[in-house]
Amino acid sequence: MMRRPDPKIVRWGILIALLVAWELVPRMGLLPELFLPRLSKTLTVLWIDLDKYWAALLVTLYEVVLAMVIACGLGIVAGATIGGIAVLRDLLLPVFSSLYAVPIVILYPIFTAWFGIGSQSKVMFAGIYGFFPVMLSTAAGIRTIDPQFLLAARSMGATVTQQITKVIIPASLPTVFGGLRLGGALAIIGVIVAEMLTASAGIGYLVTLNRTILDSPRVFAGILCILVLSVAYDIIARRLERRMVVWQSAGRRQQQASPRPIAQGAPAPAAA
């Protein structure tokens, strides 16, 4: 039987193949460099303008952090409230589910009218953009908690605070972290899109500025910065999830280490 390849090796292989294709496809003339500049040329431009891209990345990172505070903070609080109270769940959850289907980008002119074209409109827009998946995931995670857990906690004399901190929050963390990863990614997208529409600073602004003058290497240098920012956030979120949801991995290891039960009627192993 063929052995399954290591997922890490497969991921690194795909990444290396994409990078090699990025260099070879324009070099061989399969695509004009106006559409896809060589990877080496993109990295050279990024190194030459490193100070400019670093300053723009700091602006974008500042707006992304504030947007994530809004998306994740308000999303978790609202999701816990709506998911934990039956009346609010029945009244508001269908409304928020329907609003999540609306493309929020069409509302960006409203944010600029309310908050101006500065960082405030971008932060609020990206925060609302990432709010819905966090809120819905938190509400769904609380709804999937086994009632027997709460019953067992109450039977052992746990207070309401202890039930929330020891049962509800740990049991809903896997679903909440799934929403946090998606909500954080949408917050990054919201900031970049807002910077591309109306901004005078940030990575999105550099991408739009270089696109208007057809400077493809600098456009792809900005795209590369955005990709690095998104991948870094996903890695941090996954590592934080592994640290916070330790009981899941511990349960899997215990289940794998436990011996299989002997089938009924099967002979017991002979003593040595």
Briefly, what is this?
The protein has 272 residues and is an all-alpha fold. Helix content is 78%, strand content 0%.
Structure in words:
The structure is a single chain. Helices cover 78% and strands 0% of the residues. With 272 residues, it is mainly alpha-helical. The protein has a single domain, classed as MetI-like (MetI-like fold), CATH 1.10.3720. The protein is globular, with a radius of gyration of 25 Å.
Computed Rg:
25 Å
Report the helical percentage: over 70%
CATH topology, by name, is: MetI-like fold
In the CATH scheme, the class would be: Mainly Alpha
Beta-strand segment tally: 0
The secondary structure category is mainly alpha
Mean pLDDT: 78
**Do you know the CATH architecture?**
Orthogonal Bundle
Taking the sheet with the most strands, its summary is: none
Relevant CATH superfamily = MetI-like
| Domain count | 1
Can you write the helix and strand succession as a string?
Answer: HHHHHHHHHHH
Number of H- or I-type helical stretches: 11
- Based on Cα principal axes, name the global outline: globular
Distance between the termini: 33 Å
Strand content: under 5%
